[in-house]
Amino acid sequence: MTTRRRFLHFAGATLAMPMLPRSAQAQTWPARNIRAVIPFSAGSTIDIVGRIVLDPLSQQLGQTIVVENRGGAGGSIGSAVVAKADPDGYTILINASAHSSAKAAYPNISYDPADDFAAVIPFGTVPNVTLVAPGKGIKTLQDLVAKAKSGSLSYASAGVGSATHWAAERFRLSAGFTAVHVPFRGGPEALTEVMTGRVDFTLMGMSSALSLIRDGKLVPLAVSTAKRSSALPDVPTSLELGLANSDYTFWMGMLAPKKTPPAIIERLRSETAKALQNPNVLAKFMPQGIEPLPLSPAAFDALIKKEVAANIELVKAAGLKFN
């Protein structure tokens, strides 16, 4: 071999070397525990749904998935942790539609919801339901709107920029009234304040609210989906009640740091898709009205990018001001 050929051979091998660890890593993944960050408090809708999916997924992968609840700032605190994590498949994000609204609610966040993540797979969509305490004497959504227009009401959310916040703002904007936003660290805290009557209403994900509805502690007035929920078939949609553009898609799903190897993303996607068909998962999803949202990683990425732009427009239309 000539000196030049030896040099080129060596140079080619040197250039290829950085790629070897990541390729080998993808082939052996997972070799240890996986951390799943849920950026809302325990008992919130995404926490409940996420744990339902992660249980069979952990068994399929043969590794423990450790759930870490990092609530606050509408999910942006936990999301920032994952955005900065090593893209090795050992840190994943379990989030909801709040992910797409973070940039609109927090313009100075340290990450980009679209550019700093690789979307893996949606778990599905869950209805948001408009809720009041029985003691409020509000029986219908029309009653709530009339009361809101005659005087200032307050509404609770799982944090600024959360899906519960955005759903309430779409409802408020469509109905044409003002209300005081009272954000909390998660859904359970928001529900507690509405149950006590200290806050007037909330638009909460069905998963965390259903047991309280069935126990008569909260009154459901409407769901914010395009069609009625199988979990509450007698409760009308806000669209049925004449509130155009009041519907809100509350998706839940899995994301990973942007540079996670494609082979790991595909393994996560395929194994999670399998977990979503697990009979135990389907049995737990059905009574909560969770609907499938079959999207490829590329389509899921595109949805998030579209929603990021739409949420920025919503902030402008609603005249929302954030610190």
Indicate the topology.
Blueprint: H1 3-16, H2 19-28, E1 34-38, H3 45-61, E2 65-69, H4 76-83, E3 91-96, H5 98-105, E4 117-125, E5 128-132, H6 141-150, E6 153-157, H7 163-175, E7 179-183, H8 187-196, E8 201-205, H9 206-214, E9 219-223, E10 251-257, H10 262-276, H11 279-285, H12 297-318
Unreliable segments of 5+ consecutive residues: 3-17
Helix content: 40-55%
Secondary-structure element pattern, one letter each = HHEHEHEHEEHEHEHEHEEHHH
Tally of strands: 10
**Biggest β-sheet: count, sense, barrel?**
5 strands, mixed
Question: What is the averaged pLDDT score?
Answer: 90
What share of the residues does DSSP label as strand, in percent?
A: 15-25%
Tally of individual helices:
12
Gyration radius (Cα, Å) is: 22 Å
CATH class of the largest domain: Alpha Beta
| CATH fold-type name of the largest domain | D-Maltodextrin-Binding Protein, domain 2
CATH evolutionary superfamily of the largest domain: Bordetella uptake gene, domain 1
Structural class: alpha/beta
Task: Output the keywords.
alpha/beta; 5-stranded mixed beta sheet
